[in-house]
Amino acid sequence: MSSLSQPLGAAVPVRPADLLRRRPQRITFTAHWQLHQKLQKRADEEGRSLSGLIAYILERSGD
């Protein structure tokens, strides 16, 4: 079973050697222009980059 088919937040077994090679991963997605404007406004208000805000929101959604 791949990690994509596991529920969000499910533990995925990791080999210790893989922990040393972990790097942030880049993703691309398309957002509706109104969502983009809303996120950009919030990012500006919080002094964050747009990508930093989106990463923060996604990280918090896993809590």
Account of the protein in words:
The structure is a single chain. With 63 residues, the protein is an all-alpha fold. The protein has a domain at 28-63. It has 3 helices and no strands. Helix 2 (33-46) packs across helix 3 (50-61). It is elongated, with a radius of gyration of 15 Å.
Extended strand count: 0
Q: State mean pLDDT (0 to 100 scale).
A: 85
The class by helix and strand makeup works out as: mainly alpha
Envelope shape: elongated
The secondary-structure element order is HHH
**Contiguous uncertain segments of 5+ residues:** none
Reported for the largest beta sheet, the result is:
none
* Fraction in helix: 40-55%
Number of helices: 3
Radius of gyration: 15 Å
**Residues in β-strands, percent:** under 5%
What separation lies between the terminal Cα atoms? Answer: 23 Å
Please describe the topology of this protein.
Elements: H1 16-21, H2 33-46, H3 50-61
Helix pairs in contact: 2-3
Q: How would you briefly describe this protein structure?
A:
Helix content is 51%, strand content 0%.
Task: Spell out the key features of this protein.
63 residues; mainly alpha; elongated
